[in-house]
Write a structure and sequence with these properties.
357 residues; 3 domains; 4-stranded antiparallel sheet; 12 helices; 15% strand; transmembrane; Polysaccharide chain length determinant N-terminal domain-containing protein; membrane; transmembrane helix
């Protein structure tokens, strides 16, 4: 039996060797796979370079034709005028505001100007030239980061650890941001101030938001009244302290006179300073409340208004960017030319492949 004892060790060594061999083969196949991908990408890059070189003249002609077409359309097509305002939401009116703009757009697309007139209270002559309503949030990347940080502070630390910045942005709605930009596009240069004002007025007159506004203002006024009452009592108490200090000084001519209040001996200067500090804090709180009341006076308000009569804007959107007509049509013709030429090459490739079958 003693002669059979070393055999398990040999089996372990064989198994370990096979394991290392399997790991080595796996790494070899992995690096070959990465190499094949890089090789394919390099071949695709080389093919694109030679493809562009082969059809370079055609792309140049397409670009020139696109620029010429853009210039022609700029001179012959009707101009589009754009005007916009920036609004500040003091309440959560975003969803309501976005729905309203969407509704106005639907009426414009359906050429239902009479309904739009009744909704906005503006004459049809001033509305007939409108071709589009737009709204978008105004927020910078830094402001988004600040909002993300503020949101995390409202969560439990365990839950906050599971919320990353990307998931926060995916769940964030544009209409929740405080500042929004409303844009009107029209075929004629008109003064759009009445239209903008009516849009804001419709939100400000919403019964639900009016009730919320009344409750908030009444609550803030009650807080202000309570603080004012406290300040009056504080002033009275401060007067008592000052009289006590003067009387104590007259009685014993001691610069460090002390008075007894609530059966405790406390330095008068210390009590006076504490009272002054509390008084100052109350006054700062009162200023803050008055600012809040001023903000709550408008459910939504216009913060800036530019180009009320509209400015010419014939730009078009491509790949998420607004560009001029010349650039737009040049890019469109280049893309179309590229797709047509690559389709012809693909058809030729299929023809050669068919002959080999």
């Amino acid at each position: 039996m003693s002669k059979d004892l070393p055999q398990p060790k040999q089996s372990d060594e064989v198994d370990l060797g096979q394991l290392f061999k399997l790991i080595g083969n796996a790494f070899e196949r992995f690096f070959k796979f990465i190499g094949s991908i890089l090789n394919s990408l390099f071949l695709a890059f080389v093919w694109i370079v030679f493809f562009l070189k082969k059809h370079f003249i055609k792309f140049v002609i397409a670009g020139i034709v696109g620029v010429a077409l853009g210039i022609l359309l700029e001179k012959t097509s009707e101009p589009i005028y754009k005007s916009y305002i920036t609004v500040k939401q003091n309440y959560n009116t975003g969803e309501n505001l976005y729905n309203a703009i969407s509704y106005y757009n639907d009426l414009v697309e359906q050429h239902d100007i009479s309904t739009l007139e009744s909704v906005l209270g503006i004459k049809q002559e001033e509305l007939s030239s409108i071709i589009d309503f737009e709204i978008e949030s105004i927020i910078s990347e830094n402001q988004k980061i600040k909002e993300y940080d503020a949101y995390l502070k409202t969560l439990d630390s365990t839950v906050a650890a599971t919320v990353d910045y990307e998931s926060f942005l995916n769940n964030d709605k544009d209409y929740n941001h405080q500042y929004q930009q409303i844009t009107i596009k029209a075929k004629e240069r008109n003064s759009f101030s009445p239209v903008f004002n009516k849009i804001i007025e419709n939100i400000n007159s919403n019964p639900y938001f009016k009730r919320e506004q009344d409750k908030d203002i009444n609550e803030l006024k009650a807080q202000a009244l309570a603080i004012n009452t406290s300040l009056i009592k504080s002033d009275t108490l401060l007067t008592v302290y000052q009289k006590a200090i003067i009387k104590a000084a007259e009685n014993n001519n001691n610069s460090q006179a002390r008075i007894t209040i609530d059966n405790q001996d406390t330095g008068s200067s210390t009590k006076e300073f504490e009272l002054y500090s509390k008084d100052l804090g109350l006054r700062e709180k009162l200023v803050e409340i008055e600012r809040q009341i001023a903000d709550k006076q408008n459910i939504i308000e216009i913060t800036s208004s530019k180009q009320d009569s509209g400015s010419i804007d014939n730009r078009k959107e491509i790949l998420g960017q607004l560009v001029g007509l010349k650039t737009y049509y040049a890019l469109i013709l280049l893309i179309v030319t590229f797709l047509i030429l690559i389709s012809f090459d693909f058809i030729k490739f299929l023809g050669r492949y068919k002959d080999k079958i």
